[in-house]
Amino acid sequence: xxxxxxxxxxLPGRTYQSGPVDTxxxxxxxxxxxxxxxxxxxxxxxxxxxxxxxxxxLTRHSLVGCTISHLLFNxxxxxxxxxxxxxSYKEMVYKGKSNYEFLDEYGRYWKVxxxxxxxMKGCYLFTVKEISDYKLIEQTAxxxxxxxxxxxxxxxxxxxxxxxxTAIRGFIQxxxxxLQQLGKQEYGKIILAEIDRANDIIHEFLTSSKxxxxxxxxxxxxxxxxxxxxxxxxxxxxxGCQINLHPFQEGDMMIxxxxxxxxxxxxxxxxxxxxxVADRVDGLMxxxxxxxxxxxxxxxxxxxxxxxGMDIRTLDRLFNPxxxxxxxxTGLGLSVSDRIIKNHGGCISVSSRVNEGTHFVISxxxxx
Length: 368
Hints:
By secondary structure, this protein is of the alpha+beta class.
């Protein structure tokens, strides 16, 4: 039985059969976990199993008897799926690749495999299978290899970076009496404090494969965010953007953790936001919103920007060690930040749209 829509797509003068798939095997093909689509020697779909037409969100009758051109003109096939069908066809039929992987609109990974040649007698057999679990295992293995490499490099890097910082610290201490005479001793204190913080950051970066135990203390969220915003305001103005600290409605919210590590996380995210808004091409003023609110038993600190945003592929790898979109980036900032927050019993979530901006949320347990 052929549907009216399918009938309009059939080629004149041809007799269509159910296809070369033996009925004894149809039940097996219907129940495997891969989608199957078979094109005959004339490029017409002769068999499709329920997994495949379920993936395409079409019916079997609207597919059997169609060519690839008819499939791409099917009004019921979504634009994204048309794009992936066409790309798979180009990569495998025209370029001769045996398989092709892609990411769908829901963030799932799929693998398309093509079987053709003499053994198929001119037919083309496409199979589609979800490989999200395999990708997760692959990414975990890559992350473990990256962390192992980081451990080997850490000793030499620490020596090269810390020596200049130690020299700078020593000279600033020697200049302290002169700064005191000029009434500028506060500058010396700020420089020493920032050098110490830089040393702490280097330590965290280089030991990210062996996360340190947080030095737990009570941290007022409002004081933490105010201090970080104060530290970054002048840098933001130089980069042509503005930082807005939202007023705190719930009073003084407290979290438990290492104040240096918490400061490092928020600073890293604000500086990432500054770079994102600096890359805008429309000339509009860059804005960064910082604040916190209570959500049940958690404190949720947020850092938002109206920068260039990120696509789904970038978001998917954002917290992987060594992954970076910056020309001179190390790819360690967000991976270290994610590890710090997890060590404190919290999590980091992120949402972003290209050319619209990015929104980070740091969720941590609230201390009463």
